[in-house]
């Protein structure tokens, strides 16, 4: 008896049939769709979260700006009320300061006016003649330049005009039989300032 064994070739049935391919394709499609949907949901959630954050920051910034604006308006209102009260409560000191500033401003303006020599000379003469005792004047002392201008341009009868180089342009002093009339601008301003000093408590 022979001991040789005969082997037969096994044949396996094909598993990649059409139905299997269809199911596999469907599973892939479902998996892709599910992944895409999940990704879109995650992206939408992240976008909504970011939009909510930006909106909250914008609202907080708007509230802060509104509060700051209200504070500025309140501060301006308070300052305005304080200034109004101060204006209504001007003291003698404040009034004296105002008057002193007016005098100093007048000095500056007159300093500019004195650049017109003839005008300054005639103004000095007018101040002397306006004094109640001017009719008693025996002579009027003025700066030599002013005196020369008046002598050259005046036809009216005047007391003798005497040169006095110690006087400034625009100043005049009338000599009386007893005393004198001081029409110096500096003297007038000094008197005004002295009055202001007396008014200041």
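^ Assign residues to that structure.
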């Amino acid at each position: 008896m022979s001991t040789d064994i005969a082997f037969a070739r096994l044949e396996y049935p094909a598993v990649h049939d059409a139905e299997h391919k269809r199911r596999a394709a469907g599973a892939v499609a479902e998996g892709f769709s599910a992944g895409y949907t999940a990704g879109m949901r995650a992206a939408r959630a992240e976008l909504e979260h970011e939009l909510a954050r930006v909106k909250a920051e914008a609202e907080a910034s708007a509230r802060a700006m509104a509060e700051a604006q209200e504070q500025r308006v309140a501060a301006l209102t308070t300052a305005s009320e304080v200034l109004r009260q101060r204006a209504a409560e001007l003291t003698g000191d404040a009034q004296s300061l105002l008057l002193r500033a007016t005098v100093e401003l007048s000095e500056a303006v007159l300093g500019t006016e004195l650049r017109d020599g003839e005008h300054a000379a005639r103004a000095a003469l007018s101040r002397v003649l306006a004094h109640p005792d001017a009719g008693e004047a025996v002579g009027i002392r003025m700066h030599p330049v002013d005196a020369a201008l008046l002598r050259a341009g005046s036809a009216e009868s005047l007391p003798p005009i005497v040169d006095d180089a110690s006087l400034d342009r625009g100043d005049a002093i009338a000599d009386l039989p007893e005393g004198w009339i001081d029409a110096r601008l500096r003297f007038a301003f000094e008197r005004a300032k002295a009055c202001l000093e007396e008014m200041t408590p």
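The longest helix spans residues 18-88.
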